[in-house]
Amino acid sequence: MSTPDKLINFAKRPKIAVHKFSSCDGCQLALINDAVSLLELATMVDIVHFAEAGPLDEFAEVDLAIIEGSVNTHHDVHRIEMVRAKAKYVLSVGACALTGGIQALRNFTDEKELRHWQHDVYPEETEVIIEGDLATAKPISAYVKVDFELPGCPINTGQILRAIRQILFGVEPEKNVDPVCTTCKHAGVTCVMVAKNEPCLGPVVADGCDAICPKLGRGCYGCYGPAKYANMDAMIAKLKEMGLSDEQIKHKFHHINSQAITFHGVVARTISQ
Amino acid sequence: MNVENRTTKIEVPILARVEGEGALDLEITAGKITKCELRIYEPPRYFEKFLEGREPNEVIDAVARICGICPLAYQAGFSNAYEAAFGVELTPWIHDMRLLMFLGEWIESHYLHTHLLAAPDFLNYRSGIEMAKDYPNEVLRGVRLQHLGNEILKLLGGRSVHPNGMKVGGFYRAPREEEVAVLIPKLEAALKDAKDVVEWFSQLPFPDAEVPFKMVSLRHPTEYPVFATEVITSDGETFNINDYDEHFREFHARQSTALHSTTIAGEPILFGPLSRINLNFDRLPPHIQEMANATGIKWPSRNMFHSIIARSIEGYWAIERALEICRNYTYTDKPALEYTPKAANAWGAVEAPRGIQIDHVQLDERGYATAIRISAPTSQNLPCIEANLRSSLETFGLDKPDDELRLHAEMVIRNYDPCISCSAHFLTLNITRQ
Ligand code: SF4
Ligand code: SF4
After folding, report:
1. InterPro entries, per this entry (chain A) (predicted)?
2. Residue A216: its chain B contacts at CB < 8 A?
3. Which ipTM score applies to this complex?
């Protein structure tokens, strides 16, 4: 059954939950920060669980569960399974939920090094950490089925309200398939790479942020994750030509969305480790 | 039933209206609190480790992600540390813009916290959404003020969560004069709103609760502290932020995966708006001092519940200060200074909305990080929250029903605006009575 068919049965007044996993809370701010829209949303749906905003009913049956954050602990593996079991649809939001987020940089360590990290940051009584911690920070989709995804670190208010509205109308939330460059061209923003020789990941990064960084005169660092059709080889060749070292290029992709296959795989293939 | 013999266990899965999640263990034996631990289950995120080997501006972009509510505190703290390390002297323009942007974060954070997270407690609502049904104008006024803070952040950073404008040595871009000018009438109108908020909050019912803790804040030579290098305490100590380790100790407590801080002697220390206003009352302009006195509160106050008023007064000050900066704004084509990276060790400190944010970097000759330390305001406050819970629950009355005890405990915790999203994610309240 295709998603639109399934969504035909979506409740007229759906129950919605917002769950947080390992994250900075920044994506849920897309709802709280715009309290006017949140109040309006509350007239159309029942928000049954949203800890930061107030309502608490963690494992209630819901039509839509919105998930922020990545899975970093044993406890959270259990929790996301429970949430999935009680939700008709799951919408993952933000780089943490989609790709593990910035904390997934831990995935490049091995177990021995991770132990060092644990002891360095938490020098005393680390058992509580060692016992609870997983060796990886992984996206929600690594553990349970996810129906819809919104990229970004953070996602923005327009994006999530549009997605919720589309779901309420029985339509699958649209995906941005273009790169950041598209917005630059439409908005008449001067290309920072051409004009200022600034490294910019815009050609391979998903549009949706309204090209914030080029508008500020700086290069994109990839917080919206990879664009659908990304020519990574050309991008890396260009960065090399601009004089960036392999280490600098690697760090650019191993950042906020380091586990996105497009970034992770290509860096491993193209750049000497 | 005899209180002494009652055994009860209450579990509340998550503390609502707090950024991040944690747990509270409360044990009451023979009418006394025998255990009171704020437990924080932090999936550690290891910023300190994975940022090793990174270049300065990558670190500035990365540390924003520690916290969605006060990303700029980390960006500003680290910028300060790098600029100290490389010997960069900010121009007055850059300094003013840093201050303006950070005041945007104060305004956004204070009005979000006071209206949506804290105020419902005083008026007996479970959420800001519920409160808005009976107090639509008040909530919308708070939201308007919060949005103004976001707008300031957006002006300089392109967006309010994880803004992208700041770099070591200044900003990527200077706003044009007309972009700044549009803020002026909004800030002017906000002054009236902000004053009304102070008046509204001063009429809230405040439970009694004296906190005995040592209060700590930054101290600026001439004005209310935001960026500064001097630290003062309510015991009359004064020292430079570089000597932080000689005065305070950060450690890991068994029940928590967030770090805790105390004095070297192990006493709790209070950071945040109440400490700031108490220790820097003389740095508020006289008419704001008058406004603060008109609330009927005798400053300095040791009632932790007055934090909501402290935040509203700081909000007013921040709007007025931001207005002054905008009125004097002139465009520059040099929004950032050049610098030569070098090996160094340096501290950076800022007054984040919730208290002092302290960062330390150790750098190699390319300016790449070899070691990083991050002390968030919440970790400094955790031992205080625990001690405050003990005393205020006893004052409140331990024989009260479990539900009331739980609500009161949550209210005490929310006064600190603990921002444990950087760390912690799960609060269960277990009350055991024996
Ligand atoms: S994706 Fe970014 S903004 Fe969203 S929760 Fe994760 S770190 Fe925060
Ligand atoms: S331009 Fe790139 S780094 Fe900047 S906000 Fe957009 S996606 Fe994120």
Report:
1. Hydrogenase_assoc-protein (IPR051349), NADH_UbQ_OxRdtase-like_20kDa (IPR006137), NiFe_Hase_small_N_sf (IPR037024)
2. 157-158, 164-165, 172-173
3. 0.95
Domain of B28, in residue numbers: 3-43+401-433
Q: How far apart are CA A37 and CA B347, in angstroms?
A: 40
- CATH superfamily, domain A15-168, is NADH:ubiquinone oxidoreductase-like, 20kDa subunit (3.40.50.700)
Burial class of residue B334, CB neighbours in 10 A (0-12, 13-18, 19+)? exposed
Distance CA B311, CA B124 (A): 20
Q: Is residue B281 part of a domain?
A: no
User: CB–CB of A135/A114 below 8 Å?
Assistant: yes
Give B275's strand partners: none
Query: Is B70 assigned to a binding site?
Result: yes
Total domain count for chain B? Answer: 1
What is the pTM assigned to this prediction? 0.93
User: Which residues in B lie closer than 8 A to residue A156 (C-beta atoms)?
Assistant: 159
**Residue B377 vs residue A45, higher pLDDT:** A45
B425 annotated as a binding-site residue: yes
Per-residue pLDDT, averaged over B362-369, amounts to: 97
Residue to substitute from B12, B49, B362, interface A, most A β-carbons within 10 A: B49
Rounded Cα gap, residues A64 and A16, in angstroms = 5
Q: Does B123 touch chain A if contact means CB atoms closer than 8 Å?
A: no
3-state class (DSSP) for residue B12: strand
CA of B258 to the centre of ligand 1 (A): 19
Partners of B58 on chain A (C-beta within 8 Å) are: 221, 251, 255
Strands B355-363 and B344-352: antiparallel
Q: Which pLDDT value is given to residue B420? A: 58
Give the residue extent of every domain in chain A.
15-168, 180-271
Q: CA geometry: angle at B244 spanning B238 and B248, to 5°?
A: 95
Cβ–Cβ contact A75 with B under 8 A? yes
CB contact under 8 A, B112 and A33: yes
pLDDT digits (tens, 9 = 90+) for A255-273: 999 999 999 877 777 775 4
Contact check, Cβ <8 Å, B43/A133: yes
What Rg do the C-alpha atoms of chain B give, in angstroms? 21
Strand, helix or coil for residue B339: coil
- Asked whether residue B410 is assigned to any structural domain, the reply reads yes
Question: Is B269 part of a structural domain of the chain?
Answer: no
Q: φ, ψ for residue B206 (rounded to 5)?
A: -110, 120
Phi, psi of A270 (to 5 degrees): -95, -30
